[in-house]
UniProtKB/TrEMBL annotation, chains A, B, C, D:
Catalytic activity, EC: 5.3.1.5
GO annotations of cellular component type: cytoplasm
InterPro entries: Xyl_isomerase-like_sf, Xyl_isomerase-like_TIM-brl, Xylose_isom_bac, Xylose_isomerase
Protein family: Belongs to the xylose isomerase family.
Subunit relationships: Homotetramer.
Chain positions recorded as Mg(2+) 2 binding sites: 267, 270, 306, 308
Pfam families cross-referenced by the UniProt entry: AP_endonuc_2
Source organism per UniProt: Thiothrix eikelboomii
The protein's name: Xylose isomerase
Catalytic activity: alpha-D-xylose = alpha-D-xylulofuranose
Cofactor note text: Binds 2 magnesium ions per subunit.
Compartments (UniProt record): Cytoplasm
Keyword Cytoplasm in record: yes
Residues covered by the Xylose isomerase-like TIM barrel domain: 122-286
Amino acid sequence: MSTGFFGKLSPIRYEGAASTNPLAYRFYNPDELVLGKRMEEHLRFAVCYWHTFCWQGNDPFGAATFERPWFGDGMSAARMKADVAFEMFSLLGVPYFSFHDLDIRPEGDTFAESAYRLHAMADYFQQKMEETGVGLLWGTANLFSQRRFMTGAATNPDPAVFAYAAATVKHCLDVTHQLKGANYVLWGGREGYETLLNTDLKRELDQYGRFLNLVVEHKHKLGFTGTILIEPKPQEPSKHQYDFDVATVYGFLKRYGLEQEVKVNIEVGHAVLAGHTFEHEVALANALDIFGSIDANRNDYQSGWDTDQFPNNVPEMALAYYYILQGGGFNKGGTNFDSKLRRQSLDPEDLLIGHIGGMDTCARALKSAAKLLEDKSLSAPLEQRYAGWKDAEAQAMLKGERSLEQIAAVVEAQNLNPQPRSGQQELLENIVNRYV
Amino acid sequence: MSTGFFGKLSPIRYEGAASTNPLAYRFYNPDELVLGKRMEEHLRFAVCYWHTFCWQGNDPFGAATFERPWFGDGMSAARMKADVAFEMFSLLGVPYFSFHDLDIRPEGDTFAESAYRLHAMADYFQQKMEETGVGLLWGTANLFSQRRFMTGAATNPDPAVFAYAAATVKHCLDVTHQLKGANYVLWGGREGYETLLNTDLKRELDQYGRFLNLVVEHKHKLGFTGTILIEPKPQEPSKHQYDFDVATVYGFLKRYGLEQEVKVNIEVGHAVLAGHTFEHEVALANALDIFGSIDANRNDYQSGWDTDQFPNNVPEMALAYYYILQGGGFNKGGTNFDSKLRRQSLDPEDLLIGHIGGMDTCARALKSAAKLLEDKSLSAPLEQRYAGWKDAEAQAMLKGERSLEQIAAVVEAQNLNPQPRSGQQELLENIVNRYV
Amino acid sequence: MSTGFFGKLSPIRYEGAASTNPLAYRFYNPDELVLGKRMEEHLRFAVCYWHTFCWQGNDPFGAATFERPWFGDGMSAARMKADVAFEMFSLLGVPYFSFHDLDIRPEGDTFAESAYRLHAMADYFQQKMEETGVGLLWGTANLFSQRRFMTGAATNPDPAVFAYAAATVKHCLDVTHQLKGANYVLWGGREGYETLLNTDLKRELDQYGRFLNLVVEHKHKLGFTGTILIEPKPQEPSKHQYDFDVATVYGFLKRYGLEQEVKVNIEVGHAVLAGHTFEHEVALANALDIFGSIDANRNDYQSGWDTDQFPNNVPEMALAYYYILQGGGFNKGGTNFDSKLRRQSLDPEDLLIGHIGGMDTCARALKSAAKLLEDKSLSAPLEQRYAGWKDAEAQAMLKGERSLEQIAAVVEAQNLNPQPRSGQQELLENIVNRYV
Amino acid sequence: MSTGFFGKLSPIRYEGAASTNPLAYRFYNPDELVLGKRMEEHLRFAVCYWHTFCWQGNDPFGAATFERPWFGDGMSAARMKADVAFEMFSLLGVPYFSFHDLDIRPEGDTFAESAYRLHAMADYFQQKMEETGVGLLWGTANLFSQRRFMTGAATNPDPAVFAYAAATVKHCLDVTHQLKGANYVLWGGREGYETLLNTDLKRELDQYGRFLNLVVEHKHKLGFTGTILIEPKPQEPSKHQYDFDVATVYGFLKRYGLEQEVKVNIEVGHAVLAGHTFEHEVALANALDIFGSIDANRNDYQSGWDTDQFPNNVPEMALAYYYILQGGGFNKGGTNFDSKLRRQSLDPEDLLIGHIGGMDTCARALKSAAKLLEDKSLSAPLEQRYAGWKDAEAQAMLKGERSLEQIAAVVEAQNLNPQPRSGQQELLENIVNRYV
């Protein structure tokens, strides 16, 4: 039975590129085969509960702008929110959603009450998931909003907060397991610092390493088969976040022996805040073998904070999907929209329209990327560019069979004077533009 | 015998804070004891050959502005440059200098000729070092200026360039060993990429890992006792540099088994370009046990490129030295000025004045930092802030003796509800201001 | 009678640089003469009501952290807030405060009720001001927080919002006049856009120009003798703010004929967000004759948003006060702290400590700047540098008495080949460091 | 007769979107009608001499990478460069080119010799232009590369440099007039400062204002009918450039009475460095009635300096052309590529490929923009959004026929409480994506 929130809307359908219907897909066609796989299975879209149903439109200089019937504190508001959420998932036809504990249940007066409510809502979700066929891409714990976490959760100077956070994750992971989540995510929103002056960096990194190991140990105990993911971000809310970017997370995982256990959930906007392109972060995660999943929300390039906008630039997303496909595509991961409507986008329809635009951008980008890969338009020149390394002597250098002295002797003996070759960046960029 | 370049200048002396003599030190007093050690031994200043004697004042939109008698291509120009350089080291009274191979010898027509010239100049230096008592903080190879390195040295798609670079480093390390260098530095100026479209990230990282292992192996073969250092930088000249920041370098070292062998040389300006404070990079290197040495040149906060200016903000440098001292101070490392004069600073005196200002800034900062450390004004509240972790149960969590389930059980049983405590950032900032 | 909020604190006193009392001034000594004027009259400190008493510690990822007894919606809470505020003004001994309408009175159900409450609180303030001797630096209207202003106030596509905003400013200006405010400020928090796609730039600029003229006309009608100020900011909350920086505001004022009527209130952090130094903005406002007042809160250089921190870097503030003094110092303007405590700084004492640190930083900076000015250490070389322009022929060029052809004829006739002279930046920076 | 530089290449032809020929246009079809005008006349492409024929591939950390037969100092090298240049213009089929004096003639030993050479090359160009039909979009003087300009040209502390610069512009404008240039550009490469410490802002602005007036006066004397353009840039090479952005230039023009005489030449990358989108700068220039021409080279979003890359993102350029068309399209202005090849793009073909990609990006963007405009897909909702202002009372407010008091009275009388309406940003973004 409809909640009525979206009026008389019928499910969003694929109508093709020529459609001008704002409530139709122009590119997202779930059953269309791309590289022999259904588009839906490639993209694995998820709608995030947080920004979509919980954020009220406030910003650092402004109060709430959205007025939703489910804004409120009780369990019945939480259920109404869930009703509308699953209604929207069905209207959009997305296969997954994702959530924080705080998004789905009101905070209780005690830890036990909060936990109880979480489990109650999980049961409510389980039923809705069965009814709608929508699955859970990942669950997570909000360890950053409540004032007890203001100085960090795992990295708090107070061990009681560490314990509280650990207990919270325990319940969230249990619930994610119950709902057959494909992944469990940790975002270190307050795992970082505001000022070094009151921070013991080494101690906090060790706390964080232990915390993550606790989570991995519990996962195995549970038999949870999803992937544990860390979501890198360089700053905001903290001045410095410990999970700065993919390279930083990799070093952290290596330090605490977790590089086989934990992968990364990469967000477009966070990559940009860290001074990278999104495709860099994806390609690096592939190279380091820790690619897990993505949050497809972009940043405004002129804003220095996390704007979490729906993706709308096809050429940019096409490069990202190119590297995702090159790495084998999503396994347990998917394309999550941790996007939020602009705070001026007040209408229920805006919620759908934002997702439709984002999904179409991704679908179009995926198709471009698949074709680019299939044609080997980038990979063939790349292969050629490094071809010299197939040479036996080059391989010997690379495998550690030559010393610096031996190499120097060869250079001198052969009077080596290597000549540079064109990098052809403009040509390659033009080639990409043939596909987008 | 004087070259006459600096006219009739006599050596720069310490005259105390009240001096208004632009050619005197107001704070740098080499023999003054700070925390029981001579200031000179704490700071271990080095003048870098590159910007000081080789840079001609050109920028992307402008030609050379400096006119030095030693600008030219032959070996006699190289010797004149060395004569003036050591004269300046003596005038300033700095204990160390640092150089790239390209700074000190003209490029030859062949690799062998370039190498021959390098060794010839090293012999010339050796004599000057004996005469003046000036030591070598570090040597390095310029693997980024010549067009053969335009696509990388160790990370070049062409193995011949890898070999050429390896052979170059062999000679540079040999010469650094001969001159009793305290360290050997690698800066990955072109180890990175301009566009991912023509780059195989994984392959290049592996090449780079091998290259660095070659260097370490040669070091041990030579019996060189200096430290091998990597200098992180996020970008420029490359769009993306593989040695982005301290955390990235740490992950790289872990990946290639080098974390016990290689440390970092951190530059203020590079830290800023990477989105960090300099003291963050120092503190992180301490935490990860890879702190080596520093380049003390700052960036202009409003410029998005590497401006390499002399340090002039005492409060900022004081925090950096605070973390350096807290980590035990420099061992083999030191305070190198990879600074360059502004291109409008044409006069010989400007060369001295830039260094005097930088050295005084550092000396004043060191004294502040030492006092701050001695008084435990920051460390005592820090110790107190984490005191809860001394508790046995907290230690058990940290040591891995508790599971997530056990922690959750305690949280629920004790109905834990940890209350936040003030982070006192403003108070701590005010305390620091008592010292600077 | 004390509210008890600050416990048994006595007024903050000047104890001199050697004091280690966190609740004493080390540099701010109101009666000390600087350049023949009392320090208090130079600095004209103001505490802002907004961040200090109204902000609850929330950020985009976190809920409130502060718990103040006056948080609440009614008029009695508003009065308690005022009681504590004036208590704090007295404890600190600041001569001024500043406020937004929304800070001091709860929003009413109707415009009329809001206005009524504003006037009621103004009366309450008037009495407190008389009792304490604290004056009003400026008043302003909050035209950005409430959802009705989400798309702009003066620049709203809906003329009803323009009218609502105009009516709001009318009451705020009346009240500022009643309280003998030295200035009236407009901050264009939502005067800008989120996306050009729904924005008519030209139309909105015209609306804004008219709005500002309305304010100026009302000021003259009232006989208000304070200065009307605009506070530039490049972005946040809007993606683009119309009052981007000082140069942009100047062009706007010229366009709408207001350059004699309106001046700028420059905030340190806003200058940094716009890609400038603060001293640049001050110097430019002086050059354009529109300098009015300052907000002394700095930004974190590594954060891309407005962090509004208390100033703590003396060398930076010294340069700012140098240009302020050079322009003749404050006339009606002053040094306002639109700073906010870090959200982890929970304790009542933190409120005082933040202001003490900021005031001491400014006082120390002022003294440095005054000495620098008095000694002509910067101005004498500057005068010398441009001395060539005193020449009659140079003056003729500058006054428009020569044509391009005439100048070219002279250049050719004299075979002019001007030689560059050192800009001496390092020397000048070292000189500044003698004063800070 | 061919120089042979480009081998046996034949002119680049339009082959349509399906072409995979890297040396063909896929979208640029000069004779295709767009909104009733030939594409060539809409876009008015120009190749810039500077980066394309003079830049040698050096960067702050690297020496030249390009090896061109015309690199050298004499007049015969200058003529060979011109021969290749016009050959390339013809191969590409571009209607315009643009140049700096320094690009086209070697610097002489005296001012007179430099001027003589400029005129000699202008004569050589004139003949080539007649032969090929290529026109001049604009000429300009390089007042930033030679060391005499290191401290500014018009804004130099030395009036002799002002005179030298003025004389230089005189000849450049004469030559631009001779070659029937459509515009004359001024770029203030060194009109700014490195440090405020040695800069008299007010004085320098006045010098600059006078200089620009001299140029305008000479233009009228000559009878030159082209537009005088200023090219805004916020920084680089100077730390601060006086022509920061469009808004700053507008204020400057107003201050010196030039807003009817001078327009702006907006560069994509400069807009980004100033913290804007390119389309913002175009739309603002339209609103202020100073839009002139564009440089279509983009910046890398992750680099903090001017990367001058060929445009390759169609959605971004489409928005720019949308605002250009909305303002009536180019009059005298055009689409100049001040782009440079990546320094690794060594081959002659790369020069063509870079331009082909850039031209195709612009052509495709233009077509999208034209359709978007024709369909009123953005302008109709925009019109609707501001429709309330057609109301008589709203118009009365806007025209200055109501006072603040009158407006307040109406707000209170009507108990006005305006309700916000959705800004529909996501919907509008989706609509744009239908066109790109």
